[in-house]
Write a structure and sequence with these properties.
The chain has about 240 residues and is an alpha/beta fold. The protein has a single domain (about 5-240), classed as Aldolase class I (TIM Barrel). Helices cover about 35% and strands about 25% of the residues. It is built from eleven helices and twelve strands. The protein has helices spanning about 35-45, 55-60, 65-75, 85-95, 105-110, 110-120, 155-165, 185-195, 210-215, 225-230, 235-240, and strands at about 5-10, 15-20, 25-30, 50-55, 75-80, 100-105, 125-130, 135, 140, 170, 200-205, 220-225. It has an eight-stranded parallel beta barrel with strand order 1-4-5-6-7-10-11-12, surrounded by five helices. A two-stranded antiparallel ribbon has the order 8-9. It is globular, with a radius of gyration of 16 Å. The mean pLDDT is about 95.
């Protein structure tokens, strides 16, 4: 079973940033050029790059598309999302060179529509981002850059998509995002047992190489690395060696 280490770059106003627990008021801005940073990750051996348009995720339009397109031109395989609200947005990302489009809010709000895209364009072209918060006895699924609450739960949607052939699932425990508290391993064990046909990407809280190994052992098929790489807690080469 393959396991993929995926560095992440979150974009806001063309800058490299990180949020804590998805809170736009708790932003850290890093002094990296996003295209140069992506090049460094490619040089270190990364096969994939995860790009998030945070402006788009909250506002509903592809605000950082020019940056995404510039990075894609350099040759990395990219999965990218944030602000995808229509099939035209999907096409714009594919036209920009994105290999796999990440669907978050739309995957939660309009699953039948997304199911049609999976069938028409190929399930391997999409990653479903079902980022979650455990509240009131259930894994809730906030949308719109984690600023709005939805009625559907992870228990509802993950198996529904698996039954319809979806292949890639990105799942962040929002409480751990940007907190360097380690992955929620129980969440990934649960998903590995519930939707074994889907390649689950773990995200939120990685702080050490041991966290990467633990996510792999819990059944995740990949990990997303953001803040830990930006702050030099370990190198990407070390992570890839895991």
């Amino acid at each position: 079973m393959s396991f993929t280490v995926i560095p992440a770059i979150d974009l806001r106003a063309g800058r490299v940033v990180r949020l804590k627990q998805g809170d736009y008021a708790q932003q850290t801005t890093y002094d990296f050029d996003p295209r140069a940073l992506a090049g460094d990750y490619a040089a270190a051996g990364a096969d994939w790059l995860h790009l998030v348009d945070l402006d788009g995720a909250r506002g509903g339009s592809l605000e950082n598309l020019a940056v995404i397109e510039a990075i894609a031109r350099d040759g990395m395989r990219i999965q990218a999302g944030g602000g995808v609200r229509s099939e035209a947005d999907v096409q714009r990302l594919f036209d920009a060179g994105v290999s796999r489009v990440v669907l978050g809010s739309l995957a939660i709000r309009e699953p039948v529509r997304v199911e049609a895209w999976l069938a028409a364009r190929g399930a391997d072209r999409f990653t479903l981002a079902l980022d979650t918060l455990y509240r009131d006895g259930a894994w809730r699924l906030p949308s719109a850059g984690w600023t709005e609450t939805e009625s559907r739960t992870l228990d509802d949607l993950a198996p529904w998509y698996a039954e319809r052939g979806a292949k890639h699932l990105l799942c962040t425990d929002i409480d751990r995002d940007g907190m360097l508290a380690g992955f929620n391993l129980d969440l990934y064990r649960y998903l590995a047992g519930t939707v074994p046909s889907m390649a689950v990407q773990a995200s939120g809280g990685v702080r050490s190489l041991e966290d990467i190994r633990a996510a792999r052992d819990a059944g995740a098929r990949g990990v997303i690395l953001g803040r830990a790489l930006l702050e030099g807690r370990f190198s990407l080469k070390e992570a890839l060696a895991c």
